[in-house]
């Protein structure tokens, strides 16, 4: 394997590790600062820019490997039709098989590297959107709880005012009852004295 295909393989391995990290179920408190650092860090931005340039070279390698695969496949089919692959020396047949294998390997290697780069990019931005939605939901939930708490506190204040008003009315009613009882007792006392006085005067007149 040539050096540029070796570097492509290392890039593919790095993409696989990064993809496993992105889809790993991390807690929200850990995921949020990590993805915030990845999306806002200038160092990460420079690395991402360098990777974009490297993916352009990988795309060129993919086009070249695809062209070679088609050419080697066509040569193998032509040799098979002409019978040279069977009637010729074994070295020719092995050479065609090796060239076909290497061309297919290089095509799959560069193709999967490009495909996984697209998957990584999409997964990263989807995770950022998910974190943003979770933050918005937490804010809305907190706002709803605070409004609910304020409405509950106002309701409690209204109930307290109503209870205080009822207690005041009850105290007024008890005061009226006491006054009515005192007036009834005074009326009974005066009526008793009046009856006694009236009864005494009637007895003197009879004597």
From TrEMBL:
Start and end residues of each BAP29/BAP31 transmembrane domain: 1-139
Domain of life: Eukaryota
InterPro entries from the UniProt entry: BAP29/BAP31, BAP29/BAP31_N, Bap31/Bap29_C
One of the Pfam families matching this protein, by short name: Bap31_Bap29_C
Cellular compartments annotated: Endoplasmic reticulum membrane
Domain Bap31/Bap29 cytoplasmic coiled-coil: from-to ranges: 155-206
Keyword field: Coiled coil, Endoplasmic reticulum, ER-Golgi transport, Membrane, Protein transport, Transmembrane, Transmembrane helix, Transport
Membrane-spanning residues: 7-27, 47-66, 108-128
GO cellular component: endoplasmic reticulum membrane
One GO BP: protein localization to endoplasmic reticulum exit site
Entry keyword Transport: yes
Coiled coil: 156-186
Key word Coiled coil present: yes
Membrane topology qualifier: Multi-pass membrane protein
Function description: May play a role in anterograde transport of membrane proteins from the endoplasmic reticulum to the Golgi.
PANTHER family, sorted: BCR-ASSOCIATED PROTEIN, BAP, ENDOPLASMIC RETICULUM TRANSMEMBRANE PROTEIN
Family indicated by similarity: Belongs to the BCAP29/BCAP31 family.
Name of the molecule in the record: Endoplasmic reticulum transmembrane protein
Organism listed in the record: Mycena indigotica
């Amino acid at each position: 394997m040539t050096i540029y295909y070796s570097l492509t393989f290392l890039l593919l391995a790095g993409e696989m590790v990064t993809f496993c990290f992105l889809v790993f179920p991390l807690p929200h408190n850990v995921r949020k600062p990590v993805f915030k650092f990845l999306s806002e860090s200038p160092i990460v931005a420079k690395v991402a820019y360098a990777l974009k340039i490297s993916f352009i070279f990988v795309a060129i390698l993919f086009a070249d490997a695809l062209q070679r695969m088609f050419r080697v496949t066509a040569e193998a089919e032509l040799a098979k039709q002409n019978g040279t692959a069977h009637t010729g020396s074994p070295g020719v047949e092995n050479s065609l098989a090796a060239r076909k294998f290497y061309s297919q390997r290089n095509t799959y290697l560069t193709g999967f590297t490009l495909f996984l780069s697209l998957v990584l990019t999409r997964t990263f931005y989807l995770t950022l959107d998910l974190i943003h939605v979770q933050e918005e939901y937490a804010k809305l939930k907190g706002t709803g709880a605070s409004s609910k708490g304020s409405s509950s506190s106002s309701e409690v204040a209204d109930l307290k005012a109503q209870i205080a008003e009822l207690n005041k009315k009850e105290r007024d009613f008890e005061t009226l009852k006491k006054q009515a009882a005192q007036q009834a007792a005074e009326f009974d006392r005066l009526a008793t004295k009046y009856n006694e006085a009236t009864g005494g005067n009637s007895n003197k007149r009879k004597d």
